[in-house]
Amino acid sequence: MIKLNNIEKYYSNKLIKTFVLRQINLEIKEGEFITIMGPSGAGKSTLLYILGMLDKPSGGEYYFFDEPVHKMSDKKLTELHKSYIGFVFQQYHLIDELTVFENIETPLLYQKVKGADRKGLVADILDRFNMVAKKDLFPNQLSGGQQQLAAIARAVIAKPKLILADEPTGNLHSDQGKEIMDMLKKLNEQGTTIIQVTHSEANAAYGNRIINLKDGWLE
């Protein structure tokens, strides 16, 4: 599904290159549940953003289903991202002007799902996440945990082939966190590939492989 060859990410300041990722070689098969771990500043989120086509590497090759992502135009990257990938951000990235219902509905609009079907799918997922009472609220009216639940609902609603999760349970109390991890595990068992960044050993145990990053290098 995913193949990275010598992926690097650096920022140039005149003559100095500051490396975030160095010579990352990685293969991820469809249906895996991968955990990326490492200390703060190791490059975990940067790697996740590159995998999610939200950031471009400075060098190297990225193949997604044998398609050369590193050669694609921004338009093609956006299309690929919307069609295949659900992203759970650490900072939620909900749209402030939209209600919970409208935020969760957004991926279905990109996929041109018909109106009646969209409403049914959103109603189902609101019910599953115990958020029916919050559907007409705006993000700033929700607690951090509720915003995270809405963001996760939005990421999974369109049944993407790949879910990328950056500290998915970071803002949830332990019961909610376990519920979310159980749900990600279930999605994985149904065939969704999942890549999570976490500091939590308990969350890492849900996956079938751990990738350790340190100072931008794969260990």
Q: Mean pLDDT, rounded to whole units?
A: 93
What is the strand arrangement across the widest sheet?
Answer: 6-7-8-3-9-10
Q: How big is the Rg? A: 17 Å
CATH architecture grouping: 3-Layer(aba) Sandwich
- What's the N-to-C terminus distance? 22 Å
Classify the helix fraction into a percent range.
Answer: 25-40%
Query: Number of folding domains?
Result: 1
Could you give me the name of the CATH homologous superfamily?
P-loop containing nucleotide triphosphate hydrolases
So how many helices? 7
Strand content: 25-35%
User: CATH class, anyone?
Assistant: Alpha Beta
Strand count, sense and barrel status of the largest sheet are: 6 strands, mixed
Summing up helix and strand content along with how strands pair, one would put the structural category as: alpha/beta
Total count of strands: 10
Element order: H for helix, E for strand: EEEHEEHEHHHEHEHEE
Q: Looking at the structure, what is the overall shape?
A: globular
* CATH domain fold name: Rossmann fold
